[in-house]
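User: Just a sanity check before I run the rest of the batch. Below are the structure tokens for the first item. I only need the designed sequence back.
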């Protein structure tokens, strides 16, 4: 797909990777509906996007609430028509071990709410978004279409991130499955699994944990959001790409 033919929906676009994707898509001529739970970030995004060749419009979106998703997509269709690209980017971290025995013998365990919040946002939110956007594409004969799921190298497993890893591994399985289901309709589905990238999410990690993670990156640094945009741009423009998750991690996975 040519990027200037794209009408995109980007979730979690108020900051970090999603904000970068929205701005870069608009810089390349796309029309973008940017959604997030953070109203302030959306307001500054709309300001920052003024004057770009494409357009960025914003609307509130909570991917854990189906009514919010429906309202957001109705606003998208009203503003731009049916989107032909969905970037499922919204995600949260709520790290913790499954169970930990403290020195005094007390065993602390991951509360169900902590598990569920990550699955609800990172996996179920992406599923409902994909289902609703793909339904709009199919109902309106939109093809080619594309869904890109933002995963993580942590989907392969990482101590302290059982909830996040399970969500991302599930998302990778869904990416492959939806690609097989939708190819005959001209809809591609791909993923990107970033390593450690310099965003507010990474800034929220404990300094020691971040330093350990950087030490494991052969390129010796965090990635920049623009380097993940380069992968998204490739997936958008390469019409023979579907069903796979691209790793962009400075060599951290093997
Ligand atoms: P971030 O925390 O900086 O930004 C995430 C955005 O998602 C925020 O603006 C937040 O408000 C929004 N969001 C959270 N819950 C939401 C909800 N229910 N509905 C709508 N929006 C919601 O994170 P980031 O680093 O930009 O991460 C973006 C994506 O990339 C996430 O899926 C994350 O898991 C993934 N990722 C990030 C890294 C990294 O190192 N930064 C690495 C691998 C994968």
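Assistant: Here's the designed sequence for the first item:
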């Amino acid at each position: 797909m040519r990027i200037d033919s794209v009408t995109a929906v980007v979730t979690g676009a108020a900051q970090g990777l999603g904000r970068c994707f929205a701005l870069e898509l608009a810089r390349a001529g796309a029309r973008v509906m940017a959604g997030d739970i953070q109203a302030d970030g959306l307001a500054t995004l709309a300001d920052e996007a003024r004057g770009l060749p494409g357009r960025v419009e914003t609307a509130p979106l909570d991917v854990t609430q189906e009514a919010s998703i429906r309202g957001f997509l109705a606003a998208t269709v009203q503003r731009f028509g049916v989107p032909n690209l969905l970037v499922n980017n919204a995600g949260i971290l709520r790290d913790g071990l499954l169970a930990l025995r403290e020195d005094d013998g007390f065993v602390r365990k991951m509360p169900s709410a902590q598990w569920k919040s990550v699955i609800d946002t990172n996996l179920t939110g992406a599923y409902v978004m994909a289902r609703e956007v793909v339904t709009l594409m199919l109902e309106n004969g939109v093809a080619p279409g594309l869904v890109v799921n933002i995963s993580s190298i942590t989907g392969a497993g990482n101590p302290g991130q059982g909830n996040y890893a399970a969500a991302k591994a599930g998302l990778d399985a869904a990416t492959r499955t939806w690609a097989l289901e939708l190819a005959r309709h001209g809809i591609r589905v791909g993923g990107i699994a970033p390593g450690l990238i310099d965003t507010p999410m990474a800034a929220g990690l404990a300094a020691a944990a971040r330093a350990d993670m950087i030490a494991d990156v052969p390129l010796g640094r965090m990635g920049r959001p623009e380097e993940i945009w380069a992968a998204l741009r490739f997936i958008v423009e390469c019409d023979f790409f579907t069903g796979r998750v691209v790793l962009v991690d400075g060599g951290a996975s093997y």
